[in-house]
């Protein structure tokens, strides 16, 4: 086993930081270490916190961390930031919001920039969760911002998904329609100190009744004021209830198994697409084909199939449905 994997399994924080840096660089040593530690994962519990921008996710994460640290458990925080790594705004805000935890050796905090990437959660987030898990972290909190694919992608890594909304987010119902209802295990109407929180909670509850998402688990709808910590204890209890439900029903194993299968298929696609891009970029004959397409000598789709057939794949492979 690689040295870094060994040190990680021994719970060394520096090995964890190092591994994450290697993962960020796409260093082959990271892949090797991840392979070695994979069998040692599964003890950590992962909670995803997602919702529209500014709904108070980081404040909730900060308060949950505080609460959980009081029990002595270690916490890993991964903030997935959709902005560029250089804009810094959101990261700076998070730093301020979570600053009391930066000096705590029982809390590990890392941000991941998605760099405008669309289509699911960046793969590195899954590796980071696994690395934190292997290093012995008890609770992992993953914050994802926004609505859409990245947000929904949280389901591919979290055991429990918390969706945080606000009383005034008039778009909340819209948010729910955008596939969020299928992934939310717990709803939080944060900023309950503001007007309209009860109505918002009732509206969500009403929609849940209509949708009846899962017969075994009805997602609770909670009110919190994360700024003061109000309702956070209750949120933590509901997260633990959900964990208990998943563990006793066998749902946890099922969920994690599905996540791993999906990750495998995504990796196949990713590697294939990458190799294909490299190959196409370095193909000296490609220009001739492109010129033909531009000159309307052939239509783009048939040209693409012909090109792939002649240069990369057999026609059997391409025509298989
Ligand atoms: N009034 C009130 N404000 C809150 C509450 N919770 C958070 N806020 C404020 O809302 C703003 C956004 O909070 P964050 O925790 O950064 O929200 P976020 O969802 O992490 O934001 P992004 O990561 O940028 O999407 C901050 O100014 C918080 O102080 C609350 O319960 N009540
Ligand atoms: Mg945030």
Describe this structure in words.
The structure is a single chain. By secondary structure, the chain is of the alpha/beta class. It has three domains: 39 residues; 210 residues, Rossmann fold; 57 residues, no CATH class. The chain is 55% helix and 13% strand. The chain contains 15 helices and seven strands. Strands 3-2-4-1-5-6-7 form a seven-stranded parallel beta sheet, sandwiched between helices. Helix 1 packs across helix 3 and helix 2 packs across helix 3. The two termini are 41 Å apart. It binds guanosine-5'-triphosphate (GTP) and magnesium ion. Guanosine-5'-triphosphate (GTP) binds next to helix 4 and helix 5. The site of guanosine-5'-triphosphate has 18 residues, from helix 4 and helix 5.
Which runs of at least 5 residues are low in confidence (pLDDT < 50)?
84-88
Q: Write down the Rg.
A: 22 Å
* Main β-sheet description: 7 strands, parallel
Number of strands: 7
Might you state the CATH topology name of the largest domain? Rossmann fold
Can you write the helix and strand succession as a string? Answer: HHHEHEHHEHEHEHEHEHHHHH
Structural class: alpha/beta
